[in-house]
Each structure stands twice: as structure tokens, then as C-alpha cells.
Amino acid sequence: GSLLLGMSLIAAGANAQTIGFSQIGSESGWRTSETESIKAEAKKRGIDLKFSDAQQKQENQIKAVRTFIAQGVDGILLAPVVETGWDQVLKEAKDAKIPVVLVDRGIKGDESLYLTKVSSDFVEEGRLAASWLAARTNGKCRVVELQGTVGSSAAIDRKKGFEDVVKLFPRMEIARSQSGDFTRSGGKEVMESFLKAEGGGKNICAMYAHNDDMALGAIQAIKEAGLKPGKDITVVSIDAVPDIFKAMADGDANATIELNPHLGGPSFDAIAAAKAGKEVPKWIKAQGPLYLPDTAAEEYKKRSAK
Ligand code: GYE
């Protein structure tokens, strides 16, 4: 009776973990859904999640990780805003024997400083975007590029992958490339400057944005310049947030590559596996497909209904 109940409650309590999550901020719709998903997963598992929003600043992320270490958490999730500058604080976590899981972005540095990375392959995403564009334009296209946050692995690798393929096509070129910092306003501002610099944009064949939020801002700028996004200028981006499906259904965008925001499950599983002394791979990859306008209306309904 009550003894058994008491025992099971104690057992549950013993499993109750405290995990620290150092999140970058809420610069895009995708990141907001990632945060919601990870919080929901923690709740479902009875994990006490300590959440910190760094407002895009690395020093705030480093402070948060130090706080989690001081609190003696069982594990840390870190979405590293930029690739460098983590060695010291990750060494402190390692010395405290607290496993760190990198979510959705990676770092440059000693791999032994973190348990695993749960993310997609950004180079592959860039290659896929450029391959699709090359096929659509028969390998002839003058492209403008909206880069993500300067120094982030997502921006660096999505740019590299795209360039890997563009250089295979002598009549494709990246005419201009600048960071819009993964935000809608950033995408709009940079696209406005590109359109001005390109004489109104008539000779821009396509715009490649490292995420949908910048593409959605750029679409606004293209319309305000009197051009038709999705027709005069082809639009390809990454994330597959609900609003890009709406844009595709409206004919304003042409392709998006899905990025999985549900990274809590694999992250928490990796920490549990490490605690149980099991081997954990250094990279737990989540790769998404490319979506086109033909399924956009139903995808939008499905995704915005949730
Ligand atoms: O594409 C973007 C967010 O790090 C892969 O960051 C992530 C990127 C994502 O701002 O929407």
C-alpha cells in the first residue's frame, strides 16, 4: 500500500534530473519552436529544466553555463551562438563531470570538451539548396545570399555547402552576400540594400537565405521594390517554419529545407546514456528534406494547426 507508493515516489525522485539549457535567444521562428519543444520534452520526462535566454550574447551563455555548474546540474544543453570561445567554460564543465550536449549549432575546438552535438549537417543543406537552384535555372543564375549570424557554424557551413555546388556551374555566381543575422528585419534590410545596389534587382535571378525568417523579410523588400518574389527572383531558404509554407502557397517562395526543432529527446537520451556508461556518438545528425510549393498548402495547414 503506502510503503510501495512511497518507494516508487522515491525512485521517481532519484531519477528526477536537473538539466541546464543555455539558449541563444529568440531571433527566429525556428528557434522559438526549438525552445518550446525542448521545454515540453523536459516536462514530459519529469526533468527540471533550468532555462537561460542569452539575448544573442556569448558572454551571457558562458555566464549561464557557469551558473549551471555551480548548481551542480546533471547535464547541460548549449546552443552555441558562435563557433569559438568555448574551451575554458567547457573545461570547467568537464572538470565538474557535467556532460554538455551541443544543440543545433557546433563549435570549433576540442571534441572531448562536449558529450555530443545534436544538429543537422549545414554543409549538406547548403549543397542541397544550390543543387536545387542549379537544376531549376539550368545552371545559369546570378544569386544574392543572406547569411546567418556572423561566426555561427550554421552560417559558415551553409555558405560553404552552397559555394561547393555553385563553383561547379560556370554560369552561376554569388553576386552579393551579407549577414541578416537570421532575423526577418535583418533579411529585409540587407535585401533592400542588394536591390538598390543591383539597379532595382532586375538582374538578380535568385536569393538564397540561410533561414526562412530572413527570406520572409527579403520577400517583403522584393515586393516593395515592385518585383514578384518567387517569379522575378527565385527564393530558396532553410528551416521549414510554417510561414514559409504560406509564402510558397502564395507563390512568393520556391523551396525550403527542413530543420528539425525537436532536439530535446535525442539530447536528454544522450545524457542518460552517458550516465549509464554507454558510448555516445560525437554527432547525432538530424537531416531534413527539401519542400516545394506543390505540398505547401497542406504542410502549412498541418504545421500551423499544432
Ligand atoms: O536555421 C535559424 C536560427 O542554428 C540552425 O539558427 C540554427 C539556425 C536556424 O536562428 O532559424
TrEMBL record:
Residues 1-16 form the signal peptide. The keyword Signal applies. Gene3D superfamilies: 3.40.50.2300. It is found in: Cell envelope. It comes from the Bacteria. Keywords: Signal. This is ABC transporter substrate-binding protein. It comes from Lacibacterium aquatile.
